[in-house]
Amino acid sequence: MNMKLVLATTFAALMAAPAVAQDGDKLKEVLDRGYLILGSGSTNPPWHFMDGDNQLTGFDIDMGRLVAKALFGDPDKIEYVQQSGDARIPNLATGKVDLTCQFMTVTAERAQQVEFTIPYYREGVGLLLMEGGDYADYEALKAGGSDVTVAVLQNVYAEEMVHTALPEATVDQYDSVDLMYQALNSGRAEAAATDQSALRWFMVQNPGRYLDAGYGWNPQTYACAVQPGDQRWLNFVNTVLHEGMTGVEFPFYSASFEKWFGTELESPQIGFPVEYK
Amino acid sequence: MNFTLFFADLWTARMNLLNGLGQTVLISVGSVFLGTLLGVAVGLALTYGHWLLRFVVRIYTDFLRGTPVFVLILACFYILSVVGIDLSAFEAGVLALTLFCSSHVGEIVRGALSAISKGQTEAAKSIGLTFRQSFVYVLMPQALRQILPTWVNTATEIVKASTLLSIIGVVEFLLATQQVISRTYLSLEFYLFAGVVYFLVNFAIEQAGRFVERRIAIPN
User: Fold this and answer.
1) May I ask the CATH architecture of the domain B3-216?
2) Which of A192, A146, A153, A147 is nearest to A176 (CA)?
3) Gyration radius of chain A over CA positions
4) Which end of chain B is more exposed for a tag (fewer CB within 10 A), N or C?
5) Would you state the pLDDT for residue A11?
């Protein structure tokens, strides 16, 4: 059954029904309740997944924790709604969650149904190489022409996607992530093309074995989302995220970024605000 | 397949998986129990009800039996909350499965009751039994023997349908398994494991059903 279609239909039915009662003061509601209801997934590392101790964790979860910390001074005051990717928009529309942070790509279509916060990450495709392999970086891969084989997860657009960056490369498609990485390990492929976040997370888990070719393309913006119509709540979440990336909560944001993506962020420049540069 | 890693990860994730299995059992037992109660009422209404009641209940069963469980689950979770009934994901899921189960049990009960020949009811009447008495002492014992095998079948269907609750965020056994897979990448091993566990649960239900069938069988 086409899950997306069914959900879209359900959603259309919801839109036709009278809007969910809303008094327009979500911030007060959440503060009075004493905890944040955060919608996120549980099956996509490093974004949102169960760690070995059976706790939800990941970069998305940390963004929710940042908001909870701002609300209650305690990042643990969260009730999680573990939702599938398809449930992100319906759960916001029906008010089942206060906030969704679930690697949600910002698109104009979605922006008509939910209200996006400011972005907290920019996703893109990157190339993973073996440390000490024949090709040192993106330039070398490009110069390699059709001698270079790129492993990629099977997808209708996979070939086109790889050829955007490496027009002459040979593309081998694989059914699953582990097979793709195996192709790289065994030398059947010189590079693996995958999401930057997945690539970084893989490098964090296997230190010293892999290399990022240093080229990213196919940009996608990830933002949290709220139910439309409550500017106060949206402003609040925006402020929290913004100060996480540029202000007092920068240590929280950057520690999380380094934990999941292995990169130490440069502290925002002091003096003239970075936003206007 | 890497079974050394699998067993290590299985041990690490044991609590998560056990919780998931607990949810699956709770959802299934709850839905089958409530669905059976409701289903018996539906079956009785379909067999002995006033024509108007029969008509309404007929629409109810046909509608539910003709709708994918998946759609029922989404409807209970989302549409009900729009009209102001705010059920948790767990409650909405159990409600959907209960409704689905009741429609099937209703049909099973109706079928079993109508399969008993009319002579039985007439004989019961002729020895002076009231309708209640003839139902309890004559019809129900015979119908039960008919109902049991198909009822067991419905119960196993509900166990399998409970996996669909993962879509609305109930961490039942399948979602718990997927959570482990997403961390360990051992997809084949853990899906195989999940398959075996679901089989064992359903096998246990079927064996229990057979046992009861043998106990209540009319001795030759």
Assistant:
1) Orthogonal Bundle (1.10)
2) A153
3) 21
4) C
5) 54
